[in-house]
Amino acid sequence: MGELGTNHLLGIKNISKDDIQLIFETADHFKEVINRPIKKVPSLRDVTIANLFFENSTRTRLSFELAEKRLSADVVNFSAASSSVKKGETLIDTVNNILAMKVDMVVMRHPNPGAGVFLSKHVNASIVNAGDGAHEHPTQALLDAYSIREKLGDVKGKNIVIVGDILHSRVALSNIFCLQKLGAKVKVCGPNTLMPKHIRSLGVEVEFDLKKALEWCDVANMLRVQNERMSTRYFPSTREYVAQYGLDKEKLNQLSKEIVIMHPGPINRGVEISSDVADSNHSIILHQVENGVAIRMAVLYLLASKMKHYKN
């Protein structure tokens, strides 16, 4: 088995295509493990991992915790919402306290872009970025691309459209980097007000007509509108957004071909995607959730292997 070219997973931008392929091959192995009657392996038995969540998260945190426990790691959970951070403690203080507990790896979600990079320069531990502001969310992009590979056989040459709130989405940015590295063609689709100014400089096309985007694509990745990141109104009303950019059975049935539907969750049912589409056999949303555990196991395992190699 190969070795990752990096000591941290801070973003898809900083890893190579070979790293992505290695993570996928390792995840294939772990997918077998999590489908066995006994789902645990002792791979990380002597590794301590701290989950630092400075921003609310349910699915990502649970997925990482499950991955860590399946690998037999020791886990320390830290939720900043109920911690000393509220009393004014800085990121460095928090981290130093956690490292004083002899932690080997840190999985961190933080509202500030670049928090993981900052951390990696100041602490002697492997850092996994579980989302930094509206910047990157690398493990989500990996599990999305892995799910496409599983469903369609390969990502190369496929047409993928990412629909919705591109402006506030770290999932969109990480997905664009990951899919392009694997040879897919990527378009983004959504209201003009929810498009980042420089999106075209990333080599993606912008399509404002959902019907055209769906006719073009093999896979549609539907993002939720991130109301919690919005300080102003970006479109007239939810009803108007649903009419233009919401995906329902009627719009799917008008297409001349079958497409694969994805969603990183949590779903606003009836807004970006209707329940009958989310629960249909076009959708691979539940496969994404299962694959998320295998991908996170692979990332943690490969980073820990690299760390052990350097410590020995």
Please describe what this structure looks like.
With 312 residues, this protein is an alpha/beta fold. It has 2 domains: 12-136 and 289-307, 3-Layer(aba) Sandwich (Rossmann fold), CATH 3.40.50.1370; 138-285, 3-Layer(aba) Sandwich (Rossmann fold). Helices cover 40% and strands 14% of the residues. The protein contains 11 helices and 9 strands. The strands form 2 sheets. The protein has a 5-stranded parallel sheet with strand order 7-6-5-8-9. Helix 4 (115-122) links the parallel strand 3 (105-110) and strand 4. Helix 1 (17-34) crosses helix 11 and helix 5 (138-152) packs across helix 6. The longest helix has 27 residues, at 285-311. The model has no long low-confidence stretch (mean pLDDT 91).
Our count of domains comes out at 2
Structural class: alpha/beta
Radius of gyration (CA) equals: 19 Å
- Low-confidence segments, given as residue ranges, are none
CATH class of the largest domain: Alpha Beta
Basic shape: globular
Which strand order spans the largest sheet, edge to edge or round the barrel?
7-6-5-8-9
The level of helicity is: 40-55%
At the fourth level of CATH, the homologous superfamily of the largest domain is Aspartate/ornithine carbamoyltransferase
How many strand units?
Answer: 9
Number of helices in the DSSP assignment: 11
Report the sheet with the most strands, covering strand number, pairing sense and barrel closure. 5 strands, parallel
CATH topology of the largest domain: Rossmann fold
What proportion strand? Answer: 5-15%
H-E string: HEHEHEHEHEHEEHEHHEHH
How far the N terminus sits from the C terminus, by CA atoms, comes to: 18 Å
Q: Let me know the average pLDDT.
A: 91
Known CATH architecture of the largest domain: 3-Layer(aba) Sandwich
